[in-house]
Each structure stands twice: as C-alpha cells, then as structure tokens.
Specification:
Elements: E1 2-6, H1 10-22, E2 26-30, H2 33-40, E3 47-51, H3 59-68, E4 74-79, H4 84-93, E5 97-100, H5 105-116, E6 127-129, E7 132-135, E8 140-143, E9 146-147, H6 152-163, H7 171-178, H8 189-201, E10 208-210, E11 214-216
Parallel strand pairs: 1-2, 1-3, 3-4, 4-5
Antiparallel strand pairs: 6-7, 7-8, 8-9, 10-11
Helix pairs in contact: 2-3, 6-8
Amino acid sequence: MRVLVVEDEQLLADAVATGLRREAMAVDVVYDGAAALERIGVNDYDVVVLDRDLPLVHGDDVCRRIVELGMPTRVLMLTASGDVSDRVEGLEIGADDYLPKPFAFSELIARVRALGRRTSVPLPPVLERAGIKLDPNRREVFREGQEVQLAPKEFAVLEVLMRSEGAVVSAEQLLEKAWDENTDPFTNVVRVTVMTLRRKLGEPPVIVTVPGSGYRI
C-alpha cells in the first residue's frame, strides 16, 4: 500500500511514517499543502493521511483537489479539533474518514488499512490464494497452515501480488506500491526481494515470473 503523510508537525509526521513503514507500507512524507499537491500530481497513492491545518495550501484545498481529479485515493483527515461540526465539514469536503488529535496509533493503522481496502475492487480482510493465507491486519502469512516469517518489504510485495488475484504485476508496479519515492528505480531491489520471498514461501514455487512482464501468483 502506498501512503502519503501530510503533516506540518515534522516530528509527528516522521513518527507516523515510521510506524506505517513498520506495517509494510510504502510511505512518502511532506510538511505543507503545496508539496502535497505536487506529490499527488506525480504519484498514485492508496491513502493520504492529511492534516487539515497546513501551511501554504490548506488541507481542505488539498482534499478538494483530490476529489476534483477523480482519483481513487482515499483521504484520512487529521485535526487538532474534535468538534462534531469540524468532522462533518471535513467529510463534506470529500474526506473519507476523520481522526482527531491526539490519536492512538493502533487506530490510525486500522483506519488507513480500512481505507486502503476501498481503493480497488473490494477484497476480504484475509487474502487467500495458492495455499497462502495473508492477514494484513495481523501481519501474518501462512502457507498450508505453516507460518512464514517475512520482512516488511517481503510482506508488502506478497500483499500486492495477492491483491492482484492472479493478474501479472510489473516490477514497476511493485516498486510503486511497496517502496517510497526515495528508492532508485534502476536498482534490482524488486528482483532480489521476490527471490527472497520465493525462498521463504518454500516449494513448490507459487510466484511465477512472466518474462518481459512481471510476476503473478
């Protein structure tokens, strides 16, 4: 899942990004509304965690722009105000969910994951395919009933492949969904991660390489 965190309190923004990355999400971070508009014009995000009171461009205007563009991106709006009227206004602008500060990080994770499931064809919370069971919320993977321990990036790649439901996923698409914008697109990080993932999932191999196209399960 690709997430953009937009928050002008840099310590909070970086802490949220670190926590989301530990949950196997690819996360970009910006600290003002103008930078947010620039990022959403370049990258495809599943979820934007958007502070409402931003410098340069207000969070409301960022949200409106996402709606105007007709993007499938879901918006989780953050604010220091917990007033019902503010929550209603944020939702009317186009936000998909609303979370007042301070918040429990576990709740933020749950809300981001819930919104991420709504950006594509609805899928069950636990994904199953080819004898593999993947639970994004618990960060657990089982093959034929045996738990498989995966690193965050391996988990992220497997989740993208599982969500594709048998369709071929290119290396570029995996890079887009499982890594942030600081990753060099010319590295072999995708190939190496897929190789390690194959090994950990065991025999017979379930990840198929489609020459010149990408990978599928």
